[in-house]
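Re-running Membrane protein to confirm reproducibility after the cluster update. Everything else is unchanged from the original entry.
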Amino acid sequence: MKPKKQFKANLVTLSVLCAFSSFSSLADDNEQAQVQQEIEEVVATASRLKGSASAVIEERKNQAFVADIMGAEQISRTGDSDAASALRRVTGLSLVNDKFIYVRGLGERYSSVRLNGASVPSPDLTRSVIPLDIFPSSIIESLSVQKAYSPNMPAAFGGGDVNIRTKSIPNERVFKVDIGASYKDTNDKGYTYEGGSDDWLGTDDGSRAMPGTVRAALNRYVNGLSDISIRNIRDVESKALGSDIGQDAAIALNKDLIKALPRDYGLTEESLNPDFGVKAVYGDRFDDLFGFGGSLGFLASVAYDNEWSNSEEFSAVLSAVDAAATGDCSTNTFACYSAKNNKQSTKNNIKLNTSFNLGYKLDGHDLTATYMQLRDTEDEASVAIYQEPSKSLSIADGQVQRSHTTSFEERQLDILQLRGQHNLTWSLLDGVGVDWHYTDSTATTEIPGELEITVRDEYQNGQYQRTFYNGSLGGNPYLYRFVDMEDQVENWGLNVNKVFYFAGSDLELSGGGYFIEKTRDYRTDFFNYRFAQTQQLELAQSEDEALNIGSYFSNDSMVDNTDVEILFQEPTADDYLAAQMIDAYFGAFDYTINNNWRLSGGVRYEDFRQVALAFSRSAFDPSLLADKLSSEAIEQATVLENDYFGSLSMTYSQDTYQVRFGYGNTVVRPDLRELTPVQYQDPLTDYRTLGNPYLESSYLDNFDARVEFYLESGDNYSIGAFYKDIDSPIEALLTESDGRFTLQFDNADNAVVYGIEAEWMTELHADMLGGAFFTSGNITVSDSEVSILESQRGDLTNLERRMTGHSKYVANLQLNYDSHNGNHQASVIYNVFGDRILAAGVNNFDDAYEQPINSLDIVYSYYPNFNSTITFKVKNVLGQDFEVEQNDVLIRQKEMPTEISLDFSYEF
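Result of re-run:
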C-alpha cells in the first residue's frame, strides 16, 4: 500500500490565509461543442488526405482568430502515437525532449495546454506544461493550436494555446483493436535490474518505497531536530529513557534503518525486448433508449505501450574559450575538455491509458461525462564514467569516477470532466447558447526509490583493474532519493452567447467566466551512507562484477561488518507547498458584415492569487507547519495580480481567400517551482537549478497577420507574420561557483520575437502510379532578441542574445500518396528546426546551442479490406543524434535511434 498523502488541511489553510475565497459556478467557451458538430457532419470525398483534412480546414477558415487544426485522420496518416509527436507537424511548432512543444520557436513557458478547453495539471516534476506524450493519439479527435489570443482563453498566453480535443460518443457501434511492435537499432543490449512484480503495469509494488520503519524514524529523530545519525539517535533515545543507551545500541538502531531500505540494485547487461503496444476502442449509441427521445452513447478506450530506449550519452566542460582553436576536439580528448562524462542509459517506459466517455443528446442539449487515467512511468538504469584531470581523475591518472543510477518515476494524471452544451428555445431566451464545463484533475509523480552510487575505478596502463571506495574520498557514495508530488486542479467555466441578425450583418455577443483552483504538495527525502575514514570497500575485480555494486550491501552481514552509518541528507529547503487561484470573467463580440468583413474581440479580467512556501523537514514539524509560518512569511511568498487583457481581430473574406489581422495583450506567469528557492536537476539542461521567489510576471503585446487561400480543388495556402513585444521576460541565467554551474530564473529587461510563416497543401499529380500525389507542409522563419540588465549580468557572457529555446527556423514537409482504389497510402515526412540556445554562456564562454536535427520518417499503410489496416513505419531514417555545441565544440551528445515499427488494426 502506498503511503497516504499529508498536509491536505495545510493547503486549505494557506489558501485561506491568502484570501483565496471568491468562487463561482460560471465558466468557459463553446468551441469544443461547435467543433464536434462540424466534424460529425463531414463526409469524406476524393482522396483520403483531402477528405480527412476538409473538416479541419473548414474549421480553421471559420475561426475568428489565427489558428491551426490537426484532425485524427491527419495524425493517423503520419503514424504519430501521441499528441506531442503529432503536434510537431503543425506550422511553427517544434518538439523538445519528445514531450514539450515550442510554438514559434519560443520555450515551453510560452505554450499553454488545455484538454477540451479545461486546464489540467502537469505530472512532470520540472515543468508546469503538460508533457504531451502522455496523451495517446487513439483518444484524440483533433488538436487545435490557436496562435492569436482571444478573450475566451486564459490570459496566460505566449506563443500559442494547444487544445487537445478528445473523441466524443460515436454515431454508431465501433469496436477497434490495434496491436503493434517496433525495433530500435540502439536497443541490442541495455541495462536492467531486479525491480518489482508490477513494473510491467507502470507502478511500484512497494519494493522500492520508503519502509515504514524509516518513515517513523524520520518523524522521531528529524522533525524539528537534526538527523538520523548515530549521535542524534543516541541523544533522542537516551533522553526518552532517562539514561544513556550506549554507542553500540545507537549503532544497531542506525544500521537497522540501512537494512530496512531496498538494497538489491545490481545491474545486468542483456538484450532488450522489442517495443510493443495494444490499443482497443469500443463504443455504441442508442436512440430513444427509454422512450424519452434523444441519444445515449458511450466510448471506452484502453492503450498500453511498453517501450525500451538505450543510448550512449556524452557531456563535457570546455577547458578554454578558444578550445576549438587550440586542441583537436574531434578525438574527444582532454585537449578541449577540462572534464567529461560518458554515460550509457537504459529506460523502460510504460504507458497505460484508459478513458470512458458517456454522452446524452436531446433537442439541442448535449451532455458529456469523461474520465481519464493517463499513466506514464519511466524506469531508468545507467552507468556513467566521469573524468577530470585537474582532480587526478582520468584513465591516464589511474582513477576515474563511476556512477550507477537506478530510478523509477511514476507519473499519473486522473481527470474527471463534465461538459454541457444547450441551445435554448424558451421565450426570451430563444437562440441563447450556453456551454459549461467542470473538470477535477489530479497529477501525481512518485519516485518511490532512486539510488545513485558514486565510487572509483582503478586503471593501470589504460586497463581496468578494480572498483573500490574508501572513507577518505567523502562525497555521497550511496545516495537514496524519495519524491512525492501531488497537484490538484479544479477548473470550471460557463459561456453564454447569442446571435443578433440584421440586414446584411449579424452580431454574436458572448460572455462568461473561467475559474481555477490549484494546490501542490511536493516532498523529497535524501539519505546517504557515511563511511569511517579508514573504511575500505573492494567492490569489484572485473567490469562485469562492477555492474553489481548496487547489490553490495544486499546482505545484512555486509552492513553489520562495515563501519557505516546512514544520514538524512536534507538540504536547507527542498520541499514546498503551493496554492493558486484564478477568477476570470470575459465579454466578447463577433460582428460580420455582408459575409465579407468580420470584426472580433473583447476583454478579459483575471484576478490571480498564488502562494509558494519552501521548507525543510528538519526545520518544521509537518503537523504544525501552518501554525509555525508567520503571516510575514506568507505575505512575502504571495503573489496578487489583477488586470484586464484585450484582443481584437479583423478578417476580410472572399470565396477563395481571407486576410486576417489581430492584436492581443497577454501575460506569462512564473511557474510554482520557479518561485520556490528549491534546488533540482533540470533533465533538459542537466544543470543544477534554483527557483527565485522574486520573479515577476511577463506582459506581452502580440501582433498577427495572415493571408489564406482556399481553392476549389481543395488546395490551400497561407502566409503570415507575427511580432511579440515582451516586458520583463523570464530567462534562465547561469552563475558559476566552486566549479559548478547553477541555473537560476530571473526577469530580463525586455525581449522581442518576430517572423513569418507559410503553410500549404497542394496536389502534385492526380493520376500517377495508380494514385494521387500531394505535398503539404509549413515553414517558419523568425528571430528574437532579449536584453539583460548589467545589474543582472552575474557570470553571463552576453547581455543581448536570442531568447533561450528560440529557433530561427522550423520546417515540416510531407510528400503524400493515395491510391485510387483506396488500398494504399504513403507519406515521407521531414522535420527540422534551427539551432537554439540550451543554456546561456558564462565566464566569456559562448552560449551553448542545441544543433538542428534533420528528422525523416516514412509511413506506409495498406488497407486489405474495409475493416483492417496494416501500417509500416521507419522513424528517424537519417539517424541523426542530439548534439549541443559551445564555442563550435561538441559538449553534449545523445544517440537517437532509428525505429522500425509494424502495426495492425482491425475494426469489427
